[in-house]
Amino acid sequence: MNRYKSLFTALAAVVLGLLAGAVFMALSGSNPVAGFYYLFRGGLMNLERIGNTLASATTLIFTGLAVAFSFKTGLFNIGASGQMLMGGLTATAIGLSVQMPRIVLLPLIVLAAASAGALWAAIPGFLKARFNVHEVVATIMMNWIAYWTVYYTIPAYFKGTFLETESRRIPALASFRAEWLTNIFRGSYINMGIFLAAAAVVVIAIILDKTTLGFELKAVGFNRHAAEYAGIHVPKNIVLSMSISGFLAGLAGATYYLGYAVNMQIGVVPSAGIDGIAVALLGANSPWGVAASSVFFGILHSGKGFMNAMTKVPPEIGDTIIAIIIYFAATGVLFTRLWERLTRKRSKEA
Amino acid sequence: MKSKISILLVGLMVVLAIAGCAKKEAPAAAPSLKVGMVTDAGTIDDKSFNQGTWEGVVRAGTEFKLDTKYLKPSGTTEADYLKEIGNLYDAGYKFVVTPGFKFETTIFQAQTKYADAKFVLIDGSPHAGDWKSVVGPNTVSIFFAEHESGFVAGVAAALQIKTGSFGFIGGMEIPPVQKFNWGFQQGVDYANKNLGTKITMKAENVIYQGSFDNVAAGQQIAASMYDKGVSVIFAAAGGVGVGAINEAKARATAGKTAWIVGVDVDQYAEGIYSGDKSIILTSAMKGIDVAAFDMIKAELGGTFPGGKTLIFDAKNNGVGIPAKNPNLSPEVQAKVAEVFKLLQAGTIAVKAEQGTLIK
Amino acid sequence: MEYIVEMLGITKDFPGIRANDDITVRLRKGEIHALLGENGAGKSTLMSILFGLYRPDSGIIKVRGKEVSIHNPNVANALGIGMVHQHFKLVHNFTVTENIILGMEPTAGPMLQTRDAAKRIKALSEQYGLNVDPDAKIEDISVGMQQRVEIIKMLYRDAEVLIFDEPTAVLTPQEIDDLMQIMRNLLKEGKSILLITHKLKEIKAIADRCTVIRRGKVVDTVDVADVAESRMAEMMVGRTVNFKVDKREQERGEAVLSIRNLNVLSSRKTQALKNFSLDVHRGEILGLAGVDGNGQTELVEALTGLRKVESGSILFKGRDITHDDIHSRVMAGMAHIPEDRQKRGLVLDYSMEDNFILEIYGLPPYSRKGFLNRKAIRDHAEKLIQDFDVRSGQGALSVGRTLSGGNQQKAIVGREIDHDPDLLLAVQPTRGLDVGSIEYIHKRLVEQRNNGKAVLLVSLELDEILDLSDRIAVISHGELTGVKLPKETNESEIGLMMAGIAGAGGME
């Protein structure tokens, strides 16, 4: 019953987001029907584009899960970007300096990057648990520390021959791209991260719904006083929740920098960290919802350029339209509730 | 009530989607050339690379009645760039211009993936990430002699100011920016030795900020240079340069002397602080728009120099200072024109390496 | 007869439950009309409808004979209806005056103009004998005084009809007497009062008429003077109520809990417990009496592990557990019915079945190797719901938040007793509950004792302590003032001990 309701709410939110986007397209003098036609075709019209959509979704699934997981425990991890950077930096460092068989190297990179993300999130978690420092403030700070750490480390140790601003190219051995996968999707830059992401969705869903760990974490999130009363170690769970959240963001970093991208650039805060918040909101913090909304956002991201190319919508307006769709979809949950209340009231008065 | 509306909407979307799939390919390809461009990290009106390239494309578009379009990638990774090239290609834009070295590995992939399209890579050469240039038969790689551009600007600035101290602010320490710097120093040095000026450039006044977008840092660095007695700053630094320009404008408004030498395009308009008075002394230009325009023209004329690497320098008027320089006296402009001729003739040679120069 | 408010045939449905079923209540001008019913009977819903917080599904409301549509609290205010909520709605770092004018601030230009308001508040306070200082900050005044601020807030808005929602739940006996006097003053000044309560004593003491509601329906409206307390209780519960707790005589067993020279600090770092020593034995209910805030909370928190012990020791079943964590104490056989059921006792957003395993989710059969066993959890929940008569919309799957206070409390009591604890710490286990639930919970506590378990009952209600306890310990300012047998003492002696005057020679 409840599950259907939140599914319905999310769908209504998506429709609301698309409607808002349509209004904006119309305002900018374009035909919304054509606009959406090319937007969705751009994301889905052939295997390559489907692959690209999934590649964009991969990163969002990880960061969306990271944010959703922390939400479940009553924490707001706004630092997925920083954790992603640290995961990416660790992955890049290993990928550029370690030589070993791929079958060993890739798992090593995954584990190391995820651990780096976990550690980066555990610090604000510890500060929250021990000194009650608000995690929003702490994770934002950690984002900047990560940003400047990357800014220093990449040029100092991993720079290319000529360019100061990005690392050397990741060797094929350490890349998450796989030839067979690229071929299936006709030259898309989809990478094996998508399998990791799918696995993460399932594992997180199981942790939250079926394990004592999830039971503890959610209890702490809903009511830490009651959790404490019941003998659940609250500080431990806060650190743990942040660590798992950062673990996921670290995976986002590994697969983004070693799969989606081919090297690591400095001076860029990955926007997926922030988009993860919208993904989690639209997905109602459920792992399955996160997966679905990530794919939706992936379509928008990869279809936008084709819409711009095929219509008179200027790229800047294109960005705005995508942002509006995301914004309305993510906050649409609120709008639909408002709508529900209004209609209920009206039916009473009638 | 609500559910009815929603169902209606969902229904509408589904119908649209089905209709969309059923409908066959996009509009029939127009007979004439469709020219596309993918922008770099900045905006289309960045007063620099993106804008210069786009102006060349638009000029060609108007002149030859072509369809033109630019796309803005959502990130700065190779995948993001490649995706937009794919979008242009799928939409029938089979002549693609890309500004900046960041497109090097992207174009390397695109030139084989889209073999029937043409690519113009400005300020870079395609490679697989190993810096071994592979310019495909459908690609033209274009470079500029930034050192010559910097040289001419250096001569002009020195001639106009005569005595004093100059400075340089760079963005990232990358070859095009470094060449501007080295050329500028050589220009100042040439004027000191041959044209009787007394300009000094101290090592402490040659600074690479490290990014192209930190406006505040640019303003700070410029302020400290001006405070140390520098009268002219050559800012080859994108957004960082914008900060330097802001600082100079503030000082000029307060009645103090502060000059900036612009970069890439004629930045005179950027430096206007009152009426039509600008703090831009002159600009060290690269003919980005010319390059884009020329390549499109060549394609239309069937002479697209595919597979070649072109250098735009003084000889082919690919670099230099603006035709109009309100802040330079006519005598100075005449003198600079003479020097430019010597440069074209090869009488003067400007080095593209650091040698004994600062940084 | 002139009616000032009439609610006629009110019906209101919530998912899974009909909260109000064709309810009719008429309030005469100048009377105190009590609304009597158990928790969850539908009193609060009915008043929320009158106050414009809910819309009825059917039925009409008349005020001064005219039909009205009250769609939000502002309309209610405009009609002269004001409500003193059970949980006060006051801003703690504002003064009394600021709180009262909140939402209708008098201004002079852009500036707040509070002087006249303060004067009027002072005048109202004197007129009704409320004794409120308009300049005091809310956080500095007592709960009873805060309630008066709420009353003045209504009067300041010219309310003619005042609704009191369980007004005595948070008051001390002395404060209750004061409130009764205030209500009489209000009546004298021409106001009418609707009193929501489940306390028969108070109805008998002050109300003129009483409408009894049971499970969403009106049982009857009676003149209070004509009906005996026990009859009203029957009407409310639907059966005869036994006020006397049946307790057989029995020998107490060995000490389960031994507290030795315990020193504990309060949250404000003041000495909350001073060298406190006490034993609790098998087969007894030990009642701990005391005025609120005399160290009871800290004692219980120290015993359960929620609060750090400064010095002294706690022996449980002969083992020193002074520094054990909460979980191991629970596992060792200590159960705790917490003082605040919503803050500590339940995860309100969890389903009842999850709340029932809050402490034991890690044990088989509820989980194995870290994975929850939903079937076992469901069975467990259904058994407890059955055994402890926990009523809710969707049974085991009901979210904790949707249960009435009484049913929440029954669920907690059930959960804790189900652990089969050697020691049950019951802290105000019947606070804010109706007669039926109180009777039920008392029976369960006595059952524990009869089964040879130890019960430490902490309560602010002296009646409850006197009725249930085998021994009575009294705490004052963090010190034990004495231990008495119920048959050898009386209310006034315990009262003196609560005030810190040591009993004449304690036993044990």
Tell me about this structure.
By secondary structure, chain A is mostly helical. Chain A has a domain at 49-270. In chain A, 78% of the residues lie in helices and 0% in strands. Chain A has 14 helices and no strands. Chain A has helices at 2-27, 32-44, 47-72, 80-97, 102-131, 135-157, 179-184, 193-210, 212-222, 224-229, 234-260, 272-282, 287-310, 315-349. The longest helix of chain A has 35 residues, at 315-349. The model of chain A has no long low-confidence stretch (mean pLDDT 89). Chain B folds into 2 domains: 34-144, 3-Layer(aba) Sandwich (Rossmann fold), CATH 3.40.50.2300; 146-286 and 329-345, Rossmann fold (3-Layer(aba) Sandwich), CATH 3.40.50. Chain B contains 10 helices and 14 strands. Chain B has helices at 2-22, 49-64, 78-90, 104-113, 146-161, 175-194, 215-227, 239-253, 288-300, 330-345, and strands at 34-38, 67-71, 95-99, 118-122, 139-144, 163-170, 198-208, 230-236, 259-264, 272-274, 277-278, 280-286, 309-312, 319-320. Chain B has a 6-stranded parallel beta sheet with strand order 2-1-3-4-5-13, with helices on both faces. Chain B has a 6-stranded mixed beta sheet with strand order 7-6-8-9-12-14, sandwiched between helices. In chain B, strands 10-11 form a two-stranded antiparallel sheet. Chain C is an alpha/beta fold. Chain C folds into 2 domains: 3-237, Rossmann fold (3-Layer(aba) Sandwich); 245-333 and 425-508, P-loop containing nucleotide triphosphate hydrolases (Rossmann fold, 3-Layer(aba) Sandwich), CATH 3.40.50. In chain C, 32% of the residues lie in helices and 27% in strands. In chain C, strands 6-9-10-3-11-12 form a 6-stranded mixed beta sheet, sandwiched between helices. Mean pLDDT of chain C is 88; it is low at 504-508. The chains are: A mainly alpha (350), B alpha/beta (359), C alpha/beta (508). The interface between A and B is large, with 51 and 50 residues.
